[in-house]
Amino acid sequence: MLNKMKPKLDSMKELHEKLLKEINGQSDLDIESISSQKFAEKTKQLHDLSQITDRYSEVEALIRDLQSLQQMLDDPVTAQDNDLREMTLEEIKTTTENVLDMEKQLMLSMLPTDSVDEANVLLEIRAGTGGDEAGLFAADVLRMYERFAEKQRWKWEEISKNYDSLGAIKDATISIAGSNVFGQLKYESGVHRVQRVPATETQGRIHTSTITVAIMPQPTEVQVQIQDSDVRVDVFRASGSGGQKVNTTDSAIRLTHLPTGIVIAIQDERSNQKNRAKAFTILRAKLYEREREKLALERRDSRRKQVGSGTRSEKIRTYNFPQNRVTDHRINKTLHELEGVLNGEALPEFIQALRVEEQTDMLMAMNEEDA
Length: 371
What we know:
The protein is of the alpha+beta class and 371 residues long. It has helices at 2-23, 36-74, 76-80, 82-109, 132-151, 181-185, 272-300, 338-342, 347-370; strands spanning 121-127, 155-163, 169-177, 190-196, 207-217, 231-236, 252-257, 262-266, 315-320, 325-328, 333-335. 48% of the residues lie in helices and 20% in strands. Helix 1 (2-23) packs across helix 2 (36-74) and helix 2 (36-74) runs antiparallel to helix 4 (82-109). Residues 71-188 form the Peptide chain release factor domain.
């Protein structure tokens, strides 16, 4: 693959040297005359290119070492010295492994990065088929993500949650903020299925229930601007949540986005303004996600598959309690440590495996494009 990528890598190396001279004032460009924004863009471009060109230089150096070792192996003097020949063969083996490893790192560094990976997210969980059991499993999965967020030192803020007296969740929306939140959680979108014996089952039969998980990056107000004329705002009295608090003032908010028909209703806060702010946060994220899904569909024809683009209708994972098993169907990976997954400790094993699969997919697509 490296031979196919060599022209592109050489051009990147030339651009890197050009930018380095410009920033150091060693070119015809008057660096002091350009705006601070343009200078910052050039500096970032140089940094990004360095991640690639530095590895490329290391690969080239290793290949030169390998060629020198091969010449040494072909030398008559080496052929007559068994110890020297064995030592040379061992060095060739080690250097070859280093070349392959460094080539892989180089290819990965060339993959396009998604700036939205650094975004905070809105986590949305909804009970699906299975009645109360689906709602109870939704509560289990919500706790799984909360524990995982704690381990990552992310900020967890409840936006809205509807549940019943048993603790079964009908739906919940959570804001999660921190480093690389979307980059790690984006693989969790889709249908999660549970197989277990419900506490209310008297004959020990295994029931199957489902919930849906949506992971939406939180855009800024600049990224998604909502026109006042596109939104109808209705104010009403909160009806309570599963027999919980009931407001006696008209503090609940319902937003209807007229162009798309998206409806957001929030009544968790006693303050009208707080409910309004939360509703607009969710609406902005949903509109942003619609645009991202539209772009993903347009690109999908040129890709083998989309590991990290789980839709709400795609069954992605099964949690089987009797067998202590969790299976991710996208990569056929199974862990026999259900408790470890649900307490957030083993979840990174799935996330890392999905990331590797996606990177492999992208490498293959990049290779096909260059072929």
